[in-house]
Amino acid sequence: MELSDVRKEFLxxxxxxxxxxxxxxxxxxxKNPDKWSEANSHAASIRLEELENKTNRKxxxxxxxxxxNTTMRGDVPTTGIEQKVGGAVVPLGIVGPVKINxxxxxxxxxxPLATNEAALVAGLNRGFKAIxxxxxxxxxxxxxxxxxxxxxxxxDPEKARGIANDIEKKGELFQKMKKAAEFESRVSKxxxxxxxxxxxxxHLRFYFQTGDxxxxxxxxxxxxxxxxxxxxxxxxxKMKSLTGNLCTDKKASHINVLLGxxxxxxxxxxxxxxxxxxxxxxxxECVVELNHLKNYQGSSLAGTLSGFNANxxxxxxxxxxxxGQDCAQITESSSxxxxxxxxxxxxxxxxxxxCLEIATVGGGTGFGTAxxxxxxxxxxxxxxxxxxxxxxxxxxxxxxxxxxDLNLIATEAHAHELAESHIKLARGK
Amino acid sequence: MELSDVRKEFLxxxxxxxxxxxxxxxxxxxKNPDKWSEANSHAASIRLEELENKTNRKxxxxxxxxxxNTTMRGDVPTTGIEQKVGGAVVPLGIVGPVKINxxxxxxxxxxPLATNEAALVAGLNRGFKAIxxxxxxxxxxxxxxxxxxxxxxxxDPEKARGIANDIEKKGELFQKMKKAAEFESRVSKxxxxxxxxxxxxxHLRFYFQTGDxxxxxxxxxxxxxxxxxxxxxxxxxKMKSLTGNLCTDKKASHINVLLGxxxxxxxxxxxxxxxxxxxxxxxxECVVELNHLKNYQGSSLAGTLSGFNANxxxxxxxxxxxxGQDCAQITESSSxxxxxxxxxxxxxxxxxxxCLEIATVGGGTGFGTAxxxxxxxxxxxxxxxxxxxxxxxxxxxxxxxxxxDLNLIATEAHAHELAESHIKLARGK
Amino acid sequence: MELSDVRKEFLxxxxxxxxxxxxxxxxxxxKNPDKWSEANSHAASIRLEELENKTNRKxxxxxxxxxxNTTMRGDVPTTGIEQKVGGAVVPLGIVGPVKINxxxxxxxxxxPLATNEAALVAGLNRGFKAIxxxxxxxxxxxxxxxxxxxxxxxxDPEKARGIANDIEKKGELFQKMKKAAEFESRVSKxxxxxxxxxxxxxHLRFYFQTGDxxxxxxxxxxxxxxxxxxxxxxxxxKMKSLTGNLCTDKKASHINVLLGxxxxxxxxxxxxxxxxxxxxxxxxECVVELNHLKNYQGSSLAGTLSGFNANxxxxxxxxxxxxGQDCAQITESSSxxxxxxxxxxxxxxxxxxxCLEIATVGGGTGFGTAxxxxxxxxxxxxxxxxxxxxxxxxxxxxxxxxxxDLNLIATEAHAHELAESHIKLARGK
Amino acid sequence: MELSDVRKEFLxxxxxxxxxxxxxxxxxxxKNPDKWSEANSHAASIRLEELENKTNRKxxxxxxxxxxNTTMRGDVPTTGIEQKVGGAVVPLGIVGPVKINxxxxxxxxxxPLATNEAALVAGLNRGFKAIxxxxxxxxxxxxxxxxxxxxxxxxDPEKARGIANDIEKKGELFQKMKKAAEFESRVSKxxxxxxxxxxxxxHLRFYFQTGDxxxxxxxxxxxxxxxxxxxxxxxxxKMKSLTGNLCTDKKASHINVLLGxxxxxxxxxxxxxxxxxxxxxxxxECVVELNHLKNYQGSSLAGTLSGFNANxxxxxxxxxxxxGQDCAQITESSSxxxxxxxxxxxxxxxxxxxCLEIATVGGGTGFGTAxxxxxxxxxxxxxxxxxxxxxxxxxxxxxxxxxxDLNLIATEAHAHELAESHIKLARGK
Lengths: 429, 429, 429, 429
What we know:
Four copies of one chain form a homotetramer.
Chain A: H1 3-11, H2 20-28, H3 36-55, H4 60-64, E1 71-73, E2 76-78, E3 84-102, E4 106-114, H5 120-133, E5 137-148, E6 151-153, H6 157-168, H7 172-182, E7 189-198, E8 201-209, H8 216-233, E9 238-241, H9 254-259, E10 262-272, H10 273-280, H11 284-302, E11 307-308, H12 312-322, H13 330-333, E12 336-343, E13 346-356, H14 368-376, H15 388-415, H16 419-427
Parallel strand pairs in A: 3-5, 11-12
Antiparallel strand pairs in A: 1-2, 3-4, 5-8, 5-10, 6-8, 6-9, 7-8, 10-13, 12-13
Helix pairs in contact in A: 1-3, 2-3, 5-10, 5-15, 7-8, 11-15, 12-15
């Protein structure tokens, strides 16, 4: 069968949109594994053509920017996402270098930012200048785990408590669940299972170490396997949902802020007064004050549990898009507390990012511009040891958000000529 | 001067990265407005070349997917973002059609999704089938305003209260501030100013109608203009920050959930029992139950103020990237309450999206694949009347997130064979 | 019939416990209005006797401390609470005087504190000393309203929106609802109705001015009357609940913090450095720092929406019990933001209490020790003008919580010998 | 010296108010330990007399209801609270019996309620009837610990992390800290120390088992002792505050909801449909629906992290006052999730109380009416084994709040004639 025939059948509605890749591969390329990628490319083109016909428009950009995210594992083909028509492009800027003194990120780094936000790159440059003039930024990954929290149901709260206690004592049951959870995995390790009871139901929050992958998919699968073991011992356990929203995935939540998810990062810079004054034309005490008034008092009044910062989501979003992360996780990954305090004549400035969920392996990270953007920072693919590339990326993002909030707060403080009055105030005159 | 000369000077460090576009335009193209776009393209290429040299790698994808987001207003050139090197590509799928019975979105729509999330498109297709089989989804924009909340400081709380009272009484002061706020605008209207007092400081939350643009930039500028008028009457007013985080922009917050920001959307579908059973192999009562246990009780226990849903951020993110939105706003735009209840034998399913911040004009919406993606849905550029295109897009996104959460909850309910037991339960047997 | 006969019948189970007061009044005192109080006293005694018999114990304290909270309005007798057996006693201390420069509270005040918390009175004394040595504390009631938010249901979200819009435009419908709400009232005024939509339901938050009473009961009744008018115009309105928890009564919530409930109070003291040093042996900068680290950063990390203070609930509880307030409202009335900042060599210290719900009329305020405690502060009963006594009490409580948090933070700062190191730090040495 | 002389000197200002008890004891009673109590009584009377003079009023109630809360441990006298003048009385009602099937509370209980809230006792009676007609309520204490979270500071986040890791590994350091924490205690056991990092600071949340006392004071002292051990190993540790608000004490916070404080309670009742219909004139499905709409959806929209209930604070407050608890803790102790679901023709109704902080030993629990109220429920003083009395009280309070919310929700559901329409709805007609 020729490609044109499939195209014709598709346009006539005889081939369904969601089957197009497979039909082309089977009918035109006779399931040749080397042609899977090409089959996808054709399918996208034909599908887009139909869309153009239906809408009576041309979508040259979408077509031109097609990106190949297919995979062929053994003889199992995957499309990456379903019903592809091409690629969506976001403008990409480069910023840096910034000097990072991390455990995994050491040296001078350029950072790719995919964004439509004017001034973002420029702002980061100013923040980076403050960092570099201060000898670099310190970054630390303080926690690293991916969580999944299936929801199970018991006949009554007493039985639920019994099971929670059994899991919490970390005895035989826990070991069996751990074994089941790790059975299919090369990299993932089960670190803990934390039960949260609510009536006769338990949210079991599984904590996994997942190497350089973000880990959601494996955590889902492995926690599900562990639940099977739990059901063997307690047949009355009824699985209600793979997740009951205590993971928490793709929603802002305090459990992630308090107990972490993905990487938990700390950063700090020790910035001399003169550096702040030179770059931002403001006394550092103004930065300390505005951080309190805006990032803590203002945010508290606004009613937030995670947004104790000025605008770190800008950088998080730009780097997530650039490097092929799961962009729905911008929601919670942008949780951030900003710190600013004087130590003698130095401003100590830094951030706590409690739940930055990222990967350098899997998802969108392995192909196209995402792969290249990770290469710019030398943290593409699996790290050696496992997990070190993802942690490196985490430290780099930590450095970037710190620079961004420093720039914004200092710039806002300057904008309103606080400088003079506040020096007086801070010095008690 | 030749382009090669500028390139040489840049590589030798004689031209700064952030000046490259302007230098090429001035030196090579003698400020020819028609050449501004080309100057940018060259700058990106040269800048990328230097990055390739420094990293000893090739970034063909980034170069190939360069997107032109420059503008020339009169003779004022802008680069879109600073220090461009090219474009970042996210795989784009198409899903639909879905039948929407909105005020602005009426008819059958195809939706573009830029994502790396496998199963997202497929999931939406299932949700859309449920919608279409039920005669379509109803969508309503119930509120529409952009907010900016500058932080001002007074000598003491009493003075702050006096000013708050003066603004709240909507008299002469308010009218003058309104006039100042609207002075430079063609489209924007000031709807309200709401003061929030905290000690001797006021967060003044300005509410603007901003047509089809997202409106943050204009809201910032116009509220700043209004503050100047306020200072004329009350010279003791001291501007502390263009925003004190009560807007709230790019952070999850309850003020946005409660009082709205961007578009506030309501959607609902009336789905016959048989439709749910056919598509999801589950009784609709199971959907109602899991919505309670997961999206409300689980989310409450997790500590969220905005995440009363299963995973709407996936669709929000995919459509934001596809259509050139400000992706940092995924953080709060994904705030969502899901509704599921039985009405006789029908499942009523819908969502409340209190603060969806979107545009069809400005930012990244006007060029490249973003423009094309908006064209697919016939909501690119300014609407007639103003605001109608942005509202149309809001309704479409509302339809999509409804379909997605319906699919996920119903699928999870099915996955665990709740069906049988729960029919009994729901029917009281 | 003799009292002994009723007693006998009661002990034999022929008279129900909840009917005891009425039976005695009718049978023994032949409904003599002057004897209603005595009938209650006898009933409590007999009821307690039975409890003593059943438990084989003696409850002399409960008997001895019986308090008469009955009323007789015309010929309608009320018991105050049901099934009284006597009184519960909480130790009462006195603290003061404290100099208050409020609008309603002016002069030197002694405050009654009913508490079991050792050190509370002593701590307040230290705080009051700081206030008095600084010339007094400024207190302001910035908002004053009681809210009730009935939950109504419409057939679909569109209809719900229509009604919300109709109410919000403050036209004829609003005026009719206002008239109905105020019909039975001498004091209460309806200030506003704010609709909050969630799917096809509306939470209608009614705002009332309620004079010197706390106002919950009247707000419930009057909002219910207004809903009847709403149903006349929109017969499809279905009342779901007198409250849907958006009031919010007796739960900590952000809506109360943001939009107020009861009295919203601001207070501040301007305290010279030497005063702080003399009383607390600490530099004032340490107070500023600890307020940030504990009351904002610590509280934020703990996940609170209302608890940006050290321990104001202690004073709130002690004064609520002493003065006969509704003690369940300690929950939200203790919402508080503490402010501490340097102004030259002065510490400006104050609080924002967004939702302090109190009364000097009604509930437990009119009799017994509660009445006397209000008399100590000269704010018992209805004020002239109406509301002024309740506002006076609010200002006094505001002064007390300010003193308490100042004392605690300063004491904690001192306890850890921060003084020296931080002076250096704050002065940039 | 005669009492009249001391009185005279006091009224002349020669004896300070806060020294009055001691002066009388020393001068009049020559430090006779048996006279300490009497000295306090005289002091209160004289102090009150002075207050009467100053205010030109009489406070007979306060005087008459004086309660003796002094103690004499060996020869160390304490006043209970400072500057006593007498007692504050709250009307006390009795409700019950209610049948409780707990682990610690077994049998039929009468409950004392100190309240000014009309209808509270009556409401509980209706709720208790539903419980009793259903064979009783099941109550379980699922967790039991008191927490204190001192705030310590390190030179930088890396050092802070190192210490957090050292504590978390539960090795030698933890054992030494545990030993120090338990050194002075007979009953308290240190269960865990959980570090929460925020920049260069650690909030160390100590978890103690504290028997029948509420445990705050001992937890403060013992955690302070443990920090000293920590400082021996890490001299750079700087104590910033005995608490940094992560305990969290006397503020509503999510950390208490998620991780518990005091007793965590689960309760449930299995109530036949007919019982609900008989008592509340409503179908049980209406209770399920209103619980979702009000206690979850409404509360979520209101922005709460702890208030997923109708009005449990009423009962919490009434029982806290009656039994001499620390009433400032009503704030967080009233955190509550209400559960309502159908199981066949039964309504399963219950609550989760995550952080109920109570005692039967210490504070106000040991004397006066508080002691008597605990005696009514047979849970006064230390339990055997230790902790069992406090747990018994916790279960009783759990039963009461369950009854109260059941009554309120069912009554509200009935009030609006939902019954008919919703039976149809729930049964799919």
